């Protein structure tokens, strides 16, 4: 008899049943009815960003006694379901720590284009801000980001697009907000999810090898990529030119042995093209990334946290709760 293999579970280590245990309305966004506000209450000031699914503007709410600043996210034509999902998730998470606050939803009377109105954050572009941060600043902001992730995970929601562009920091007020919940999804155990989520440099190995039964731990990989980029001053940390190359870049650091062990454990196979591109790589020690330029940030504690996040096997990555308890 061959030794009994440990049965592999395809469910999250934590918060697996949050959505299962809540009333169906909690995650049933398809039947959400939206009460639209008055578009005339808001005026666009200037464009601050654009994404695949929206254009983002700084605006003012002129409806009150004193005009207040806000962020206006004008959605591009996209399935109504996707908009409802984003709104439902934002409403479920409203008031959570460091979660961007949705203030209103309006529709253009002519084009019928919907816009989401958010609280204003005076963000500094990460390419400008991150190089100026001290070791203590980084510890502080990573903790603030973890609070947001732990909250959304505890509420049964995966963000699925954690990256610097979606983390707004007002450094003068030491305020952080996790934004853009457009790809976020309700987690249900044993449910297959779309692997076409997250941005390339932050995609977990599970997405790159087409493993659909992923969970909140996807966000923890993305966080690990962010932290590694900041402490090693290498942005982005895994710089792939396409999804196939992305896995190659990861394998050059974490090695191919552990990748194949991971694939074996979950009964996954690479497609032949991926396999030929991969080659064979030994694991690169984290110390190889430490330079005189980054050694004040790449402390043993910081490296230990990165090491516990950037693991092929999503089930062995730290959870958001465990990461909050990490000495870093």
UniProtKB/TrEMBL annotation:
UniProt keyword terms in alphabetical order: ATP-binding, Kinase, Nucleotide-binding, Serine/threonine-protein kinase, Transferase
Domain Protein kinase: 42-328
A Pfam family annotated for this UniProt entry: Pkinase
GO molecular function, one term: ATP binding
A biological process from GO: regulation of cell cycle
PROSITE patterns membership: PROTEIN_KINASE_ATP, PROTEIN_KINASE_DOM, PROTEIN_KINASE_ST
CDD domains: STKc_CK2_alpha
Reaction(s) catalysed (UniProt annotation): L-threonyl-[protein] + ATP = O-phospho-L-threonyl-[protein] + ADP + H(+); L-seryl-[protein] + ATP = O-phospho-L-seryl-[protein] + ADP + H(+)
EC number of this enzyme: 2.7.11.1
InterPro entries in UniProt: CK2_alpha, Kinase-like_dom_sf, Prot_kinase_dom, Protein_kinase_ATP_BS, Ser/Thr_kinase_AS
EC supergroup of this enzyme: transferase
Binding-site positions, ATP: 73
Cellular component per GO, a single term: protein kinase CK2 complex
Record-linked PANTHER family: CASEIN KINASE II SUBUNIT ALPHA
Family to which this protein belongs: Belongs to the protein kinase superfamily. Ser/Thr protein kinase family. CK2 subfamily.
Listed name of the protein: non-specific serine/threonine protein kinase
Source organism of the structure: Astrephomene gubernaculifera
